[in-house]
Design a protein that fits this description.
The longest helix has about 70 residues. It contains three helices and six strands. With about 220 residues, the chain is an alpha+beta fold. It folds into two domains: about 70 residues; about 140 residues, Roll (Chitinase A, domain 3).
C-alpha cells in the first residue's frame, strides 16, 4: 500500500514538472513573439521617419531647383566654361578674339532714363556689314542696373544667340543690335519700356532702366 502511494506521488511530481516545463516554454514563446512585434514596430517607425525625411529633402531639392531656374533666367552661371570652339563660327579668328576678351563693366544707365529710351554707341569697332533684321547674332554680354549692379552676363558659358526682329528678346535688343558688326562691342542704355517694363524680371525691378555691353561673336545671315 505504501509503495502504491509513493508511485502516485512520483507520477504527480513528474506531471507537475512537465506542466511547469510546458508553461515555461509557452512563456518563452510569448516573450519571443513580443520582442519580434516590438522590433518590427521599431523598424517600421525608423523606415517611416527616414522616408519622411527623404521626402522633405526631395521637396527642398525640387524647390531649390525651381528657385535656381528662376534666378538663372536672368543671372548666368559663372562656373561653367564656353564649350563651342571658335572654329564653329564663320570667322574663327574674330570669334576667338571676342571670346577671349575680359568681360566689360558697363556704364550704368541714369536712374531718370526715359522709359522709351534706346541709345546705341560703339565701344570697340567691328568689321564687315552690319546685322539686319532676320540675321542671327551670336553675342557675349553683361547687363547692369542703374546702381551698377550686374543682373545678367553670358561670359562663363556659350555665347547667346538671337534672331533680330523675331521678338525673342526685349525690344532694346531687337532694335539696338541692328547694324552691329562682327567683333563690335556695343553699349545699349535702355529705358524700361524697351526692357522689362512694369513687370520686371528676376533681379530686375519693375520700371527699371538697363544698360548692356554686347560683344558680337558671329553674325549668321538670314537665308545663308
Amino acid at each position: 500500500m505504501g509503495t502504491a502511494k509513493r508511485e502516485r506521488q512520483k507520477a504527480a511530481r513528474i506531471e507537475k514538472a512537465l506542466a511547469e516545463a510546458a508553461a515555461a516554454k509557452r512563456a518563452r514563446r510569448r516573450r519571443a513573439l513580443v520582442r519580434i512585434v516590438i522590433g518590427s514596430v521599431v523598424v517600421l517607425a525608423v523606415l517611416f521617419l527616414v522616408s519622411t525625411l527623404m521626402g522633405d529633402g526631395g521637396d527642398d531639392a525640387e524647390e531649390a531647383s525651381e528657385d535656381t531656374a528662376a534666378t538663372t533666367s536672368t543671372t548666368m552661371p559663372t562656373t561653367t566654361s564656353s564649350t563651342t570652339p571658335p572654329s564653329a563660327y564663320s570667322d574663327p579668328e574674330v570669334a576667338a578674339e571676342v571670346i577671349e576678351r575680359i568681360p566689360p563693366i558697363p556704364q550704368p544707365p541714369p536712374e531718370d532714363t526715359p522709359p522709351d529710351a534706346l541709345e546705341v554707341s560703339t565701344l570697340i569697332e567691328g568689321e564687315g556689314e552690319g546685322a539686319e533684321p532676320g540675321d542671327t547674332v551670336v553675342v557675349h554680354y553683361v547687363g547692369v542696373l542703374s546702381d551698377g549692379t550686374p543682373f545678367d552676363r553670358s561670359w562663363g558659358r556659350d555665347p547667346f544667340e538671337v534672331t533680330l526682329g523675331a521678338g525673342e528678346v526685349i525690344a532694346g535688343w531687337d532694335e539696338g543690335l541692328v547694324g552691329a558688326t562682327l567683333g563690335e562691342r556695343r553699349h545699349l542704355p535702355i529705358g524700361s519700356e524697351n526692357g522689362y517694363g512694369s513687370r520686371g524680371m528676376g533681379d530686375i525691378p519693375p520700371d527699371a532702366p538697363l544698360a548692356f555691353d554686347v560683344d558680337v561673336v558671329d553674325i549668321r545671315r538670314a537665308g545663308g
